[in-house]
Amino acid sequence: MMRRRLLILLTAPALLLTACATPPAPLAETAASPYGAFLAARYAGAQRDASGAAEYYGRAASLAPGESYLAERAFLADLMAGQLQSAAVTGRAALEGGDDSRTARLYLAADAVARRRYEEALALLPAEGFGPFNAYLSEILSDWALAGRGARDEALARARALQAPGFSAAFLSMHRAMLLEYAGLHEEAESEYRSALAGSPLRRFSTELYGTFLERRGRRADAIALYESYLANAAGETSLVVARDRAQRRGRPPRLTAPVGAARAVFGPAAWLASEADMDLSVIYLRLAQRLDPDYAATGVLLAGTLERIGLTEAALAEYAAVPPGPFRLPAQSDRVMLLARTGMVEQALPQARALWRETGAEEARLLLADLLRATDECAEAAQHYAAVITARETAGDPSSWRFHYFRGVCLERTDRWEEAETEFLAALELEPDEPGILNYLGYVWVERGEHLELAFEMIRRAAELRPAAGHIIDSLGWAHYALGRYEEAVEALERAAALSPDSPVVNSHLGDAYWRVGRRLEAGFQWRRALSLDPEVDLRAELEDRLENGLPESAAPAPASGGGASAVQ
After folding, report:
1. 480 phi/psi in degrees, rounded to 5
2. Cα 347 to Cα 507: distance, rounded to the nearest angstrom
3. Across the chain, what does the average pLDDT equal?
4. DSSP assignment of 253-306, as one string?
5. What pLDDT score does 544 carry?
6. Residue 64 to residues 50, 60, 207, Cα–Cα distance (Å)
7. d(CA 540, CA 523)
8. Hey, which end of the chain has fewer CB within 10 Å, N or C?
9. Range 189-198 average pLDDT
10. What CA–CA distances, in Å, run from 258 to 22, 252, 484, 519?
11. Which residues lie closer than 8 Å to 123 by C-beta, 6 or more apart?
12. Are 47 and 136 a contacting pair, CB within 8 Å?
């Protein structure tokens, strides 16, 4: 319902990076004609390739000048790809061709305000046909263009009379507060800043703007108190830590100019929209804020996250990389590394994680590197980093996290340092006694090693109660039954595990073993063949091939631990 209301409110065109795919014929040849370039652009859009779509829509528009549809598509593609200078050119062509969405008109006005061409911006904005949200943004830009031109009384009169549509109402007080401050009406401005802080859904943003107002007024103690009141509940918000430290050392706060005021007034509703609905429109409106103030790092971070969520991976990576040095740099680069890893580019992610750790020395960067090393089976080095974090926290008197002990235990177990690993698992369990991951992993390894079987079974049973839909945990439960010689119970649990994790070679192998023990040998063979077809690891593959040829020995002992880690960890 929220997405539907937003779409009705925004009244913008269906955007361009979702389309029916055209076969990827040699694009250089295909794109030699307007229609061929259009098809290439559609294909790039279907592949979520923002820069490719921008290139080919731009080529199509240049090959067919005056074609309004292609001009508008080229403009929107430039915005999605972050090609803001090109967007000013293609936006002008879209405007001359009709600009059905009015988005080009808004962007060109923002571009004019950013260049302090206030008369040019005002000439662009009085246009009919804006939907409610676009009309609101148009009014914001008009107010700041008037203020920048010197007509501050007129700008304030219009802002006081302005009605914001729907969710945008929460940000109207911030727009008025900044205009009042810009006009030198500081008491009225403070009242509006307070209203904005009380009603804004983006509290960090509102705290930042009110705090910088207080700093500009020389009220550093009040600004510090405001920042610290926020940080009391969000100690990791680095941007406000930096703002507080700046106020404490009497540093210079950011200036409020007409372009900056317009950028912040647009950023609020655009950011809220992006937080509520992942869609191409969110990017378009954030690009307006970015054009007005390219140096505001919060816009770049939010843009990158939005681009990532809507599947524009290359554009997201570029936006994360462009975040400038400052409080947003480390989280942006961390997110970039994680995006590389999640999209299969681990060979690029790992050296960048190393570089980030060397550059910053931050715990966040060290943990990111350790997690990537663990994920790529470089466990010895990963264990060292987890140990360093644990030691640093203990030295500083800070509470450690069960995760650090748990992940270090996993790494030590995988490098055959079991006694040390067991110590870490027990330390993790002491910190978080009901964490299913710890209960399952430690219990499973004990089962594989034939140690503490009754205790291991109770731990795994508890993990299964906490996560009854986790196939790898139900597999552990079945395997614990198997280790205790309770084969009928093992079959029941392992059948459930196989239903939950049908593509796991370990789970299917275990179910085959249990079938064999209860005399269901035909089904055992089927499960072993099924496991073999699922690309098991080398050791498990050898075991499966032996089972298919020879069956299981008479001994009821569990199989070797070759598949243990895969089942114990999800």
Report:
1. -65, -45
2. 30
3. 89
4. PPP--HHHHHHHHHHHHHHHHHHH--SHHHHHHHHHHHHH-TT-HHHHHHHHHH
5. 96
6. 21, 6, 49
7. 19
8. N
9. 95
10. 45, 18, 74, 81
11. none
12. no
- Neighbouring C-beta atoms of residue 45, cutoff 10 Å: 27
Is the distance from CB of 436 to CB of 414 less than 8 angstroms?
Answer: no
The Cα–Cα gap between 139 and 157 comes to: 12
Task: Give the CA-trace dihedral at 263, 269, 275, 277, to 10 degrees.
Answer: -120
Distance of CA 503 to the CA centre of its chain: 27
Distance CA 59, CA 68 (A): 14
Answer CATH for 128-294 from 1.10.3470, 1.10.12, 1.25.40, 1.10.150: 1.25.40
Residue 535's CB: how many other CB atoms inside 10 A?
Answer: 9
CA angle 140, 170, 129 (to 5 degrees): 40
| DSSP class per residue in 378-400 | -HHHHHHHHHHHHHHHHHHTPPP
Which residue type sits at 49? D
- What the block records as the tokens of 360 is 């910053």
Distance CA 338, CA 330 (A): 12
Whether the CB-CB separation of 433 and 441 falls below 8 Å is answered with: no
Token pair for 414: 């995988």
| CATH level 2 (architecture), domain 10-101 | Alpha Horseshoe (1.25)
The DSSP code for 536 is -
Other beta carbons within 10 Å of 142: 24
For helices 313-322 and 50-63, the axis angle rounded to 10 degrees is 100
Q: Tell me how far apart the alpha carbons of residues 298 and 208 are, in angstroms, rounded to a whole number.
A: 11
**3-class SS at 554?**
coil
CATH 1.25.40.10 residue spans of the chain: 10-101, 434-568
- Beta carbons of 239 and 251 less than 8 angstroms apart: no
Whether the CB-CB separation of 528 and 498 falls below 8 Å is answered with no
Contact indicator for 135, 164 with CB cutoff of 8 Å:
no
How many whole angstroms separate alpha carbon 315 and alpha carbon 48? Answer: 9
- 117 by Cβ neighbours in 10 Å (0-12 / 13-18 / 19+) ranks as middle
> 60-74, 251-265, 324-338, 375-389: which range is least confident on average?
60-74
Of residues 111, 171, 167, 101, the one with CA closest to residue 131: 101
Residue 166: per-residue pLDDT: 75
Residue with the two structure tokens 């292609």 = 70
Is 434-568 a CATH 1.25.40.10 domain? yes
- Indicate the helix (H) or strand (E) that contains 64: none
pLDDT of residue 29: 54
Q: What is the pTM of this model?
A: 0.81
Residue 501 one-letter amino acid: S
Per-residue confidence (pLDDT) for residue 555, from 0 to 100: 64
66 DSSP 8-state letter? T
